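Format is sequence with structure; example below:
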Amino acid sequence: MLAELLFVVASVKPSERVVGPDYGNQIVFSPGGFRAKNITLKRLIGEAYDVRPFQVAGGPKWLDSAEYDVDIRIENGEEIRAALQELLRERFHLVFHRDAREMRVYSLLSAAGPSKLKAGERTMDQFAAFLGVQLSIHGIDDPTKPAMASGAPVPVVNRTGLEGGYDLRVQVRPEPGADMFTLWQRTLRDELGLRLESGKSQVSMLVVDSADKIPAAN
C-alpha cells in the first residue's frame, strides 16, 4: 500500500489542459519526492522503472497521449522509484510483463583514433537519450513536418563502454538538404571522437497489459 512507503502527499489527476509532446512531461525529482505536469502514463512508467520511452510497449492507444499532473512527497527520497511503481499499481491498476524484442537501433560507439572527450557531468547513457530526441527532428527543408522533440523512431543505445561523466556539449547547425543523422555523425566524429552505427539488437522491453485511464481517487 502507499502508506507503507511513508507518503506525505500522493496526488495524481488528469491535466486540465493537454499540451502535447513538445511542451509536456515537465518532471522534477527531488530528495523528498517527485512532481510532474502534463506527463503521459508511458513516460511515468519509464521514470518509475528507469527505462527509456522506446522500451515501454503495448497497452491502450492513449498511453502516450493522455496527460497527468503528479505530486508525490515522501520522507525517504531513496524510495522514490518504488513509490512511483506503487502509485502506478494503486492508482492506474497497471499490469505489465517483461520481454525482449529485436529492433533497429543506432549504437553509440567510440570512433577510431585518440579520445577527444573531456571530463564533465553528462553520462553516455544520458547523451544517447539526448541523441535519440535530436535525431527525431526533421530537416529545415521539410516545412510540412514540425520539428517535434518526441523521441527517435530509431532509438540510440550507448555501447561505448565508457563510464563516468563527460563534457558532451556540441552544437549542430542545420544545413539545407542535410538530414540530422548525417549532421550528427559528422559532429560526433569531429568534436567528440564518437560515431553512430545502425543495426539490430535485442532490447529489454516493459510491455503494458492493461491500465486505467482515469486514476483512482487520491
